[in-house]
From TrEMBL:
The keyword Oxidoreductase applies. This is Uncharacterized protein. Pfam families: adh_short. The gene is NCAS0B06050. Gene3D superfamilies: NAD(P)-binding Rossmann-like Domain (3.40.50.720). Belongs to the short-chain dehydrogenases/reductases (SDR) family. The keyword Glycosyltransferase does not apply. It comes from Naumovozyma castellii (Yeast). GO terms for molecular function: oxidoreductase activity, acting on the CH-OH group of donors, NAD or NADP as acceptor. It comes from the Eukaryota. Keywords: Oxidoreductase.
Amino acid sequence: MLTDKIFSLLVYLESKFSFPFLLKNDLEESILRPGSVALVTGGSSGLGLEIVKQLLSKRCTVIILDIYPPNIQFGADKALTYYKCDVGSQEEIEKTYKRISKDHASIHILINNAGITCLKPITEFSKEEVNKVINVNYLGACKLMHLWLSANNEGFIVNIASVLGLITPARLAAYGASKGGLISFHQSLNLLLKKRTTNKIKMLLVCTGKIRTKMFQSVDSPSTLFAPDIKPDILARRIVKSIERGNCQTIRMPFYANLVLVFLSLQRPYISLLKKISKMDEATKI
């Protein structure tokens, strides 16, 4: 059918291109400029590392918080610094943030990217495993936002969530719950900030499908047409471009991520249909 072909074309185009010309400039002066300081959690690998590379290309000063150092060259200009930190630990976050505050007068951009998962049925989860996923993916991000907001009234916050926070497949209950919590926290905080007349803080939510990184390398995409993997470098460019232009419109990739909201509004039978079409439950089989 013609409609099927058009839909397939849209899915393909969305997976290949980020359509930067559709992004409008919402700020008179960009917060992202040479010398801006950006903090990226989980910046040593995957999407986080690609975001770091994009920020460095914009001549920003970048701070990485991660449990392992990045496999990247540290320049003599000290544009890139690494702090060992487990963002799943509230105590470590506080101690590390104090060190960062002594080394850097201000942080203009906060990017909560760190994330982990545990792929197994909920009946096989240990309490420690559930807590770790929630602490890293959700509570760690909340803690950093609290610390950052206490010292800033201008800047940019980016939260890397997931479409799985809206519709969660089997065996990813803790991950879906953590990302769903982050989405709700982001939306609530964003509304609060918008009500402040003196607010100069922008927030960007990233809600995507499977990204081609090590985190989900054991999960095979059941439909490369309907749910293609997202290349981290393409997504990173999209995120940094949105920050640069002050654009706060939620980033949803690939195309099907936009359809999830439609299916959710149609209630359970249609959600089940979406899961069946995407085969997401089959994709997470162990």
